[in-house]
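[agent] plan:
  1. take the single chain provided in the ticket
  2. run structure prediction with default settings
  3. attach structure tokens to the ticket
  4. add a short note for the reviewer (M.T.)
[agent] executing step 1
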Amino acid sequence: MGISHGIDLNKKGLWILSKVAKVLSMALVLVAVLSVSVTGMVFANGESSDFDMVVSPNVLNVGSNGCWIHIHADIGWVDGEGATVTVDGNEIEGIFTFADDCGNLVVKFDIGQVKEIVYVNGEIVSEKPIFVLTYLGLRGEDSVDVIYPNK
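[agent] step 2 finished; step 3 output follows
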């Protein structure tokens, strides 16, 4: 009788362990869901970025004859995936995406669109415009300085 009683205790112990494992699994899922929700709120408030990026040139001379702005992002380029760029909330059109030598995303677009946003009626209206790049559901942010040295 002592042996069969020991087997019953082992079955009960395994049953308890399986219930504990289920509760822990559910807790981990809940933590993951809450983490994503909190992270999403932080990004939506503009306090953080999902990836680093650099806008080039980092100083925009509105009197220059430059043609292009490039954004170099620390995120892998995926062929066929579209990107969205905004400058001070204005969406940029006609952007091109490609990979740099490391396979990271590079975005290229006409500098004239940015000049039209930051320089209106002969005046600089945004001295430090915010560039936001959205790619693969992730977000990066950078800013540049705007100058007109002849004024």
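[agent] step 4 note for reviewer: Confidence is low (pLDDT under 50) at residues 36-45.
[agent] ticket updated
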